[in-house]
Design a protein that fits this description.
Strand order of the largest sheet of chain C: 1-4
Oligomer: heterotrimer
CATH topology of chain B: ABC transporter involved in vitamin B12 uptake, BtuC
Number of strands of chain C: 4
Helix content of chain B: 55-70%
CATH class of chain B: Mainly Alpha
Structural class of chain B: mainly alpha
CATH architecture of chain C: Orthogonal Bundle
Membrane topology (chain C): Multi-pass membrane protein
Subcellular location (chain C): Cell membrane
Protein name (chain C): Sugar ABC transporter permease YjfF
Distance between the termini of chain C: 26 Å
Largest interface: B-C, 46 and 45 residues
Shape of chain B: globular
Keywords (chain C): Cell membrane, Membrane, Transmembrane, Transmembrane helix
Strand content of chain B: under 5%
Number of domains of chain B: 1
InterPro entries (chain C): ABC_transp_permease
Chains: A alpha/beta (about 500), B mainly alpha (about 350), C mainly alpha (about 325)
Largest sheet of chain C: 2 strands, antiparallel
Number of helices of chain C: 14
């Protein structure tokens, strides 16, 4: 199933996009042929959503050109891109849950007579249209009454109707079951046969292999490769997504062997139905447990369970041997846990509050309403941790939102260190920050380990995980599938564990 | 778990960092606006700034502005905290009416005035808690949650007064509305002390910071271990308490509880005062004293319109003008225009 | 069943039950006379509530409704009594002024990106203020047209009177239902309430729709003012005080979700009638006082807000897939 060669239907060349000081895309090429399914892969922060937003008109590029059928185009907004033939279907279906299926298909272009919408005609046309996609449903029912799979197909039908050249599928299968995924793939294959160019974004590698002709892999805003999938193995793809092949240059040999302290926290059968299969894991003093796994593997969900952001429905948590109840973050903080979440902007920083306040806020929340840290304490604490972590801010009274991503991350880290925690969870601590700050954070993690802290660090960069972890836990399909120790803490064995090579072969 | 011991050293601040904060504060747009309004009033009425001492208390237009502005200022103090959490309380006007009705009916029924006052305050607190429960436990949007009491509240107040204006001659209630302490009208003294207490409470404890944190980013607040629900309950209860105090003042002032008109539209004045004071409707940073200044600006305009001979309702037109100006100035559009101009200026 | 119908069904059931109970107690309430008065007495509220339904469906709120009614009554009175215009001409001018006023508020909401409650709050101050600047006192209207209107009605079997203003309200509801459910504008309103960002991506003209929604609301408030003026034969700046709250309550009790996206114009009609029923019951009873209306309405409002939370936070039961095999 080789795609037709020739002029690509969509051709992006040297696309650059910069946000503030952060380069999201540094000169990326991407081409899509008619009649092919082209997978776009990369971890969070790799730049794939930025690239998609540029191709669909949601962002304007800062450099580079986009050619559609060989002619340069620039889109003011997604609506205009749609008019040019580029339709997008997002994971969180961007339709109207409160309106009927038929109306969702025809909104904005309903046929009318004397100003009144011809409902019957819309409904019969909607039925015909969906029949092509193998759907026979009551088109008068509210969209939200149907499963996400049906909503996806309705969204695809609408996008194809309106656009018809290029279809972008952004994580369409994230919440579908196996059967639904197959249905969706049938639809996609059909559209491919009709000559549409399809960009397919997902974090399920088996689906990439099943459906796609070619793959483009992005990492840190750069294109790593565009290759036909035939001839690639899962491990090849994982390796390209997660890091350099040369592995051991950061690896401090002997971490795994270093004497670790007593058991700090134990999670026994911690799980939540529909989110993460029960996990049993202990973390010791002076130990970093790294977590590897692709986006959507359940790695963030584990962290959220541990910190009580989502309440676990099975298992127990022991701190220093004593059971604790953690049903919400406040209880986790009381148990001596800290958590630097993956999405700094949404879950981490208080943008309008000062650097100082952002550092002392968790300590203050723990002290309660009436034991306020006075200004001198705050200045002192903020100063101490800013110095220790080398937070670069003109002064500590400026709003934290004015700092760079790396410095914001350090502020959140400082927030937890100020609490003198037992156990610290870091979810993608180096995501979206520049190279210098990246190295510093890796150094900091190592230093904290040496000082005796127990850490649980999620990362999608293998070199990084290897550089600080005593042990690595591998997640796949919302399940812990391997625990690597000793010499097995190496990029290659992690890649194999993620790619699904049986764990027995991997563990040592 | 011990937190790191903090050695208390004199804060070394960069020189020139905190020079003369008072001078800076006085140059804020709110103070300039207040000065401008007062100046216009003085031009319209040359005796505006004259203050006389008579019968053991101060008299004058300026004192009158403070006195008339006190109820809105008190409402604004509670409203500031609510708005800082990204909420709003539309029911405070109705709560004023309920509190006034309770106090008046009780003294008329022969209860001791002190008890009546306490009961009115308790009712305000309960009303605030009701709003707080709707917002936190049932997770209804604040504007909708407080709308319920806004609609039903006046009916409840009328239920208490049985539809009539309950008049009384109780000295304590009258003192709250029209008396004087150390030469200043009681409402002014109450408003000022409430402002001081509330400001001290939020700034000397961690409450202010935690409220701001919840208003800035509720999700991050949860991750940082802040228990937002208790904080929200407290804030709405406080707003209810402030409304009850304002209700007592208004009732004492007219020596009667008017369930229909007491506090009518004052919730809107209070919101306006908070917004003028610089607290964003999107939550976050707040300043109680600046909200009080906002209330004073509104009242100074009110008084100005009265003394210049316009009908008092003309005030509504002016108020709407003020809202429009503020909205335009705060809008993202204005911000982007200003930014462009700044960039241009920088290049020139 | 369609989720948006559930609260409506609850309202309809409550109305029917309440009416049956009321009739059981006061058989006199079951007459076309009472029904006719229902329509006449609540005409201005009903008309304003239709506009409010569109605003709330789109996810907004309009606090200026009562003030616009008050302003319109004063403007009409001034034009008829002071300028000497024919009432119909005055009505035309008043409606145009109201429409322009609503359009300006809609534009402010969209372009300044401010919450609708604060913009319409400014609008409320402005309209009340402008009305009192025109005339702080009530102006009585004496005109043969007014007398003629008040004398024209359709006699219903049983002695009830369907008055002109009652008919206007019914017509407004009929047009409102068509507009909401059978036009592109109506679809766009629901789309905005469902998700503004999705709506924009799907090609809904957000700016134009927002302006039109508030224009419609103010125009209907203006029409409610016309009806109020016919009803009272006077113009007064403080008339229709708090009607915005009654209108919001009618819309919500009628089953429209306060956060937008779900609801029916017909539901608002039942909401208005339920309010009318409460008032009429209180009048019939004679011992109950008028403030019970507000308390009952507040209670109903609370009940329906709770009901909506229950209905709309529960994840909808997904339909079984109907794959064509």
């Amino acid at each position: 199933m080789q795609a037709t060669e020739g002029v690509p239907v969509l051709d992006a060349r040297g696309i650059v996009k910069v946000f503030g000081q952060h380069t999201a895309l540094g000169g990326v090429d991407f081409d899509l042929r008619a009649g092919e399914v082209h997978a776009l892969l990369g971890e969070n922060g790799a730049g794939k959503s930025t690239l998609i937003k540029i191709l669909t008109g949601a962002y304007q590029p800062d450099g580079g050109t986009v050619l559609l059928d060989g002619a340069p185009v620039s889109f003011r907004d997604p609506l205009q891109a749609q008019g040019y033939g580029i339709g997008t279907v997002y994971q969180e279906v961007n339709l109207l849950p409160n309106r009927s299926v038929a109306e969702n298909l025809f909104l904005g272009r309903q046929p009318t007579r004397f100003g009144l919408v011809r409902r019957r005609e819309i409904e019969s046309r909607a039925r015909t249209l969906l029949a092509d996609y193998g759907l026979e449903i009551d088109v008068r029912a509210e969209l939200s009454e149907y499963s996400v799979a049906v909503q996806q197909i309705v969204a695809i039908a609408r996008a194809v109707e309106l656009s018809g050249k290029v279809l972008v599928l952004d994580e369409p299968t994230a919440s579908l079951d196996r059967n639904e995924v197959q249905r969706l793939f049938d639809v996609v294959r059909n559209l491919k046969a009709r000559g549409l160019g399809i960009i397919f974004i997902t974090h399920f590698l088996d689906q990439v292999f099943e459906l796609s002709d070619r793959v483009t892999i992005l990492r840190n805003g750069r294109k790593i490769a565009t290759q036909p999938l035939a001839g690639l193995s899962t491990a090849d793809v994982v390796r390209m997504m997660l890091g350099k092949d040369v592995s051991l240059d950061h690896h401090v040999t002997g971490i795994a062997d270093a004497a670790r302290g007593a058991t700090r926290v134990t999670f026994r059968d911690l799980g939540r139905t529909g989110s993460v299969a029960p996990i049993t894991l202990s973390v010791h003093e002076g130990e970093v447990v790294g977590v590897a796994g692709l986006l959507g593997s359940g790695r963030t969900e584990v962290a959220r369970l541990m910190f009580g952001v989502d309440a676990a429905d099975s298992g127990e948590i022991l701190v220093d041997g004593a059971p604790v109840t953690i049903r919400n973050p406040a209880q986790a903080v009381a148990a001596g846990f800290g958590f630097c979440p993956e999405d700094r902007k949404i879950d981490g920083i208080f943008g309008d509050l000062s650097v100082r306040e952002n550092i002392i806020i968790a300590l203050q929340a723990k002290l309660g309403w009436f034991r306020a840290l006075n200004r001198e304490d705050q200045v002192e604490l903020a100063g101490r941790y800013a110095e220790a972590l080398d937070i670069r801010a003109a002064n500590h009274d400026m709003p934290v939102k004015l700092l760079s991503g790396g410095n914001q991350q350090k502020v959140i880290l400082a927030r937890w260190l100020a609490l003198d925690p037992n156990f610290l969870i870091l979810d993608e601590p180096t995501r979206g920050i520049d190279v210098g700050a990246h190295a510093e954070i890796v150094r900091t993690i190592n230093r904290l380990r040496e000082e005796g802290l127990a850490l649980f660090v999620i990362s999608s960069e293998l070199d990084e995980v290897v550089a600080y972890s005593n042990r690595v836990v591998v997640m796949r399909d919302r399940e812990m599938v391997a625990e690597l120790t000793g010499a097995a803490v190496a990029p290659d064995s992690i890649v194999q564990a993620i790619a699904g090579v049986p764990a027995v072969e991997v563990a040592q | 778990m011990t937190r790191p011991t903090v050695e208390l050293r004199p804060a070394h601040e960069p020189p020139g960092h905190r020079h003369r904060p008072w001078a800076e504060a006085l140059l804020r747009p709110q103070f300039l606006a207040l000065a401008a309004v007062l100046l216009v009033n003085w031009l319209l009425f040359p005796g505006f700034f004259t203050i006389t001492w008579q019968d053991g208390r101060l008299f004058g237009s300026l004192i009158d502005v403070l006195n008339r502005g006190a109820p809105v200022a008190i409402l604004a103090i509670g409203m500031t905290a609510v708005i800082a959490t990204k909420g709003v309380d539309l029911s405070v006007g109705a709560v004023m009416a309920i509190a006034g009705a309770v106090a008046a009916s009780m003294v008329v029924a022969g209860w001791p005035a002190g008890l009546a006052v306490l009961a009115a305050l308790a009712v305000g607190l309960v009303c605030g808690l009701w709003n707080g429960v709707l917002v936190t436990v049932l997770q209804i949007q604040p504007i909708i949650a407080t709308l319920v009491l806004m609609v039903a509240g006046r009916g409840l107040a009328q239920l208490v007064t049985e539809g009539s204006i309950v008049t009384f001659s109780d000295p304590l209630l009258i003192f709250i509305g029209t008396g004087s302490v150390l030469g200043l009208p009681t409402p002014v003294v109450i408003a000022l002390s409430l402002m001081l207490c509330a400001t001290l409470l939020v700034r000397r404890t961690a409450l202010g910071l935690l409220i701001e944190a919840v208003g800035v980013n509720r999700s991050a607040a949860r991750f940082a271990g802040i228990r937002a629900s208790a904080l929200l309950l407290l804030v709405y209860a406080f707003a209810g308490l402030c409304a009850a105090i304002a209700g007592l003042i208004v009732t004492g002032d007219i020596r009667g509880a008017d369930a229909n008109n007491a506090g009518l539209w004052l919730e809107l004045d209070a919101i306006l005062a908070v917004v003028i004071g610089g607290t964003s409707l999107l939550g976050g940073r707040f300043s109680i004293p600046m909200s009080v200044v906002g209330a004073m600006i509104i009242q100074a305009m009110n008084t100005g319109i009265l003394i210049s001979g316009f009908s008092p309702e003309f005030n509504l037109v002016v108020k709407s003008g003020v809202i429009i100006v503020i909205l335009v100035l705060q809008s993202p559009m204005a911000a982007s225009i200003l930014q462009k101009r700044r960039i241009k200026g920088g290049r020139a | 069943m369609n989720r948006s119908l559930r609260p409506l069904l609850a309202t309809a059931t409550i109305f029917v039950l309440a009416y049956i109970l009321a009739v059981a107690q006061f058989p006199g309430m079951l007459s076309t006379r009472v029904l006719g008065n229902f329509l006449t007495d609540n005409a201005f509220l009903g008309i304003a509530a239709v506009g409010m339904t569109f605003v709330i469906l789109s996810g907004g709120i309009d606090l200026s409704v009562g003030a616009v009614i008050g302003f319109t009554t004063v403007l009409i009175a001034a034009l008829v009594m002071w300028v000497g215009l024919h009432p119909l001409a005055a009505f035309g001018i008043a409606l145009i002024v109201a429409a322009a006023f609503g359009a300006a508020m809609g534009a402010a909401i969209h372009y300044l990106q401010v919450p609708s409650f604060i913009v319409t709050l400014a609008g409320m101050f402005l309209a009340r203020g402008a009305a009192s600047v025109l005339s702080p006192d009530s102006i009585g209207i004496k005109h043969e047209f007014y007398t003629a209107i008040s004398k024209s009605y359709i006699l219903l079997p049983g002695g009830g009177r369907l008055t002109v203003i009652g008919m206007i309200m019914l017509a407004v509801f009929a047009v409102g239902i068509l507009l909401a459910h059978r036009t592109r504008f109506g679809s766009n309103v629901y789309a905005l309430g469902g998700s503004e960002s999705s709506a924009a991506l799907m090609g809904v003209p957000v700016a134009r729709t927002t302006v039109l929604i508030y224009m419609l609301s103010s125009t209907l408030a203006g029409l409610a003012g016309v009806v109020f003026s016919l009803y009272t034969s006077a113009g007064y700046s403080l008339s229709a005080l708090g009607v915005e709250l009654d209108a919001i309550a009618a819309v919500v009790i009628g089953g429209t979700l306060l956060t937008g996206g779900y609801g029916l114009v017909a539901g608002t009609f039942i909401g208005v009638m339920l309010q009318g029923l409460v008032q009429t019951y209180i009048v019939f009873d004679g011992t109950l006082s008028s403030w019970w209306t507000k308390i009952v309405i507040g209670g109903l409002l609370f009940m329906f807000i709770l009901l909506q939370r229950l209905v709309f936070t529960a994840t909808p039961r997904r339909r079984k897939l109907a794959w064509k095999t």
